[in-house]
Design a protein that fits this description.
24% strand, 2 domains, D-Maltodextrin-Binding Protein, domain 2, 10-stranded mixed β-sheet, alpha/beta, 12 strands
């Protein structure tokens, strides 16, 4: 009996150890796509498209938003699998094997509060407002309100695109500069009611408190509207694997419908 007790005492820990060390069936790892997304692209339509993509494919998208330049830099430094940008790559990037895929034309919307008293501007008036030559809305037929010019940071694609297309590279005389492009929306909403700025049409159309001004009688949704920026995906070489699946989804009927929903123009392949 004594020997049997010793046998049981010794065997129980051994059996427990064997059970603890036994291999556990492997759990399939969740697929994750690391994405650095331009602030404008995300606010315009990408948030909704990412959710649709994940639901359709089961691939989780770990998204970080930043300026277009910062997103491209994150891709170059290996911190993401794909980036998006509201401006083209520099030529040197192509030399090092980085590729861009154009997928959307986005009108540059001029946003204001309805208290400004105008529904539209001429191209000349728009340039004069952002150069500081026009300082009150009454000078363009609106309310007697001082104009507060709000712009995104000079490092953003929105600022560079507006300065190149609208200002013809002339300096912008601003009263307030936001840290990133999409912050101008909140600034126009909550700063004095004479505020004016510019942002992606896709982002602007979702802001019911604000109006988008016509330019030369044309709303941003008109195909002849004069000011556009372009949205690109940026990849290391030719897209493959889940990166390709992500881009392909944007060009699918679902992706194109989401882009058009916010007044932008999808680019066919």
């Amino acid at each position: 009996m004594k020997h049997n007790r010793i046998f049981k005492i010794v065997m129980i820990p051994l059996l427990l150890g064997t059970w603890i060390l036994a291999p556990v069936p492997a759990v399939k790892a969740e697929e994750v796509l690391k994405y650095s997304c331009s602030n404008q692209v995300y606010a315009a339509f990408e948030k909704e498209k990412i959710e649709a993509f994940s639901q359709a494919t089961g691939i989780k998208v770990d998204v970080k938003t930043a300026s277009s330049g910062s997103c491209t830099y994150r891709l170059i430094t290996g911190n993401c699998d794909i980036a998006s940008s509201a401006r083209r790559l520099y030529r040197r990037h192509a030399v090092y094997g980085y590729a861009e895929t154009l997928f959307c034309k986005d009108p540059i919307a001029v946003i204001a509060r309805k208290e400004c008293g105008v529904e539209g501007l001429s191209q000349e008036e728009l340039q004069d407002i952002f150069s500081g030559d026009i300082r009150n809305w009454k000078e363009v037929g609106g309310a007697d309100l001082p104009i507060l010019v709000i712009v995104p940071s000079e490092n953003t694609a929105a600022h560079k695109n507006f300065r190149r297309q609208v200002m013809k590279r002339k300096d912008i005389a601003h009263d307030f500069m936001a840290y990133d492009s999409t912050m101008v929306i909140e600034a126009v909403k909550y700063f004095p009611c004479g505020s004016v700025s510019f942002i992606s049409q896709g982002a602007a159309v979702q802001q019911k408190e604000l109006i988008t001004l016509e330019i030369d009688g044309l709303p941003p949704t008109d195909r002849n509207y004069p000011y556009y920026q372009e949205f690109y995906y940026v990849t290391k070489g030719k897209p493959t694997g889940n990166v390709k699946r992500f881009i392909d989804f944007t060009f699918s009927d679902v992706g194109k419908n989401i882009i058009e929903k916010y007044g932008m123009v999808p680019i066919p392949r």
